[in-house]
Write a structure and sequence with these properties.
The chain is of the alpha+beta class. It folds into 3 domains: 66 residues, no CATH class; 40 residues; 79 residues, no CATH class. 52% of the residues lie in helices and 10% in strands. The radius of gyration is 22 Å and the shape is flat. The model has no long low-confidence stretch (mean pLDDT 87).
Length: 205
């Protein structure tokens, strides 16, 4: 997306593009993507032809398959890999492949040793993300069933929003949970409520 945006700005400039292209790329739901992209099309109808000609790959999260559980819209992984092999790029093909094999095995061994020190099924970095994201969830309203909940609230401009969380299938109507493999804010709010209910039931004072 960053390369797309760099090329895009050479031809199209203005607030309507700045305010809608990245939100369109980050949108998990097709209807949210379409809302933002329509703003861009309304400003410059020829953008459809431009995108089809120069950027016809999948560049929005709403276009990704849930089966890959990945929501990256940048090329950080590619940049990281290029930096990792920077010093061996000039080697002859056979030596390059052998060196890359050795580096990969060393990396896997290092990660295996680090992983053996972990406990539980969730990586520490993911736990930190959850702790950070669960702050301020009290503003969300929840109407719950056994495994399903309607989570709702208001945007900053007081427009209402609503999503449905289904714990048994690890899904939310916002699309983020099934796309990333990690509970979204709406799912975390529901899970947090269930934890407090279980905790209150365990207190016998």
């Amino acid at each position: 997306m960053r390369h797309l945006w760099t090329n895009f700005k050479k031809k199209y400039r203005g607030d309507v593009y700045d305010n809608n292209m990245w939100p369109a790329a980050r949108a998990y739901r097709p209807e949210k993507f379409q809302y933002h992209f329509n703003q861009v099309i309304h400003a410059s109808p020829d953008i459809i032809e431009y995108m089809n000609m120069h950027h016809n790959h999948k560049w929005s999260r709403s276009m990704f398959s849930n089966e890959v559980t990945c929501d990256y819209v940048n090329n950080n992984l590619t940049e990281s890999f290029n930096s990792w092999i920077k010093k061996i790029k000039d080697l002859p093909p056979v030596e390059l492949i052998d060196k890359l094999r050795q580096m990969t095995m060393d990396l896997w061994d290092k990660r295996r040793r680090i992983g053996n020190k972990f406990s539980g099924n969730i990586l520490p970095t993911i736990i930190k993300q959850f702790k950070a994201r669960t702050r301020g969830l009290g503003q969300m309203k929840i109407s719950k069933g056994q495994h399903t909940a309607k989570v709702f609230g208001f945007h900053s401009d007081m427009r209402p929003w609503r999503h449905v969380v289904e714990l048994s299938t690890f899904t939310c109507s916002c699309g983020e949970w099934q796309m990333t493999g990690k509970p979204c804010l709406h799912a975390l709010a529901f899970i947090q409520m269930l934890i407090w209910i279980l905790l209150s039931m365990s207190v016998t004072l």
